[in-house]
Amino acid sequence: MSDQIVRVLAKDAPVKASAISARALVERARQIHKTLPVATAALGRALMGCSMVGNQLKEEKGSVTLRIKGGGPLGTVTAVSDCAGNVRGYVQNGLVELPLKAPGKLDVGTAVGCDGTLTLIKDLGLKEPYVGSIGLLSGEIADDLTAYFAESEQIPSACALGVLVDTDQSVLCAGGYLIQLLPGADDEVITKVEQGVARVGAVTNHLKEGVTALALVREVLRDFDLEVLEESPVEYRCYCDRDRVTRALISMGRAELESLIAEQGGAELTCQFCDRVYRYTRQELEDLLARI
Prior knowledge:
Blueprint: E1 4-10, E2 15-21, H1 23-33, H2 37-55, E3 63-69, E4 76-82, E5 87-91, H3 108-112, E6 117-123, E7 130-135, H4 142-152, E8 157-165, E9 171-181, H5 187-200, H6 203-207, H7 213-220, E10 226-233, H8 242-251, H9 254-264, E11 267-270, E12 277-280, H10 282-291
Helix pairs in contact: 1-2, 9-10
């Protein structure tokens, strides 16, 4: 079954939610970046959280960037989503190994760290993007996204994200949900959401049994009458191409290009999101120089 993202709205309460199943997406990221399990889990959580936020955008060319700098051994974790929820990302140091926090439980919080910030950048096609940032709560990413929406956007939320890594280091399952309360939500609504979150517990326990994104969010919000707004496929998608890389080279300016030609006689650039390599000969760089 392909990865999916679903958005729902409660008909009988001011509650909206998204849920995602993303095993193939996270596994693709692992293969590209050759991450070890704790980095796979951290990057996977960031990718899925960013995907659900991006999928909420109404602007066709909008994008969301999630950047987590926690001071832990993983370094910076970055994810970028388009308006459909297709997402790409990377982790600064994907070869981190740490002891398990508990049997079968990867220590993502220690790997990410909590001495730093979570920053969310929404590019809505305006002159300036919206940028919000908070201090990290736990480094577990889902908790930090929950805190971000409460502090930075004043939206009470509940977020759960999970990545289960198999014994061969591949991704066995991955998914999560993001529930948000709309204006007018009273204590009864809040209690029902909290009870649903507690009842479901760790999302990977359900995902490994083959539960879909829609079934997951229906279970969490089973006390509400839900309307499905959208179900759509999502994937790990990088938008790099040679034209973009060429424009980046030109933007370096004449002095930098001249230095590149003199010192290296060519250029080899690697996309940080998909590891695709773009090679330029001396002649191609000289042609670019002539265009500046």
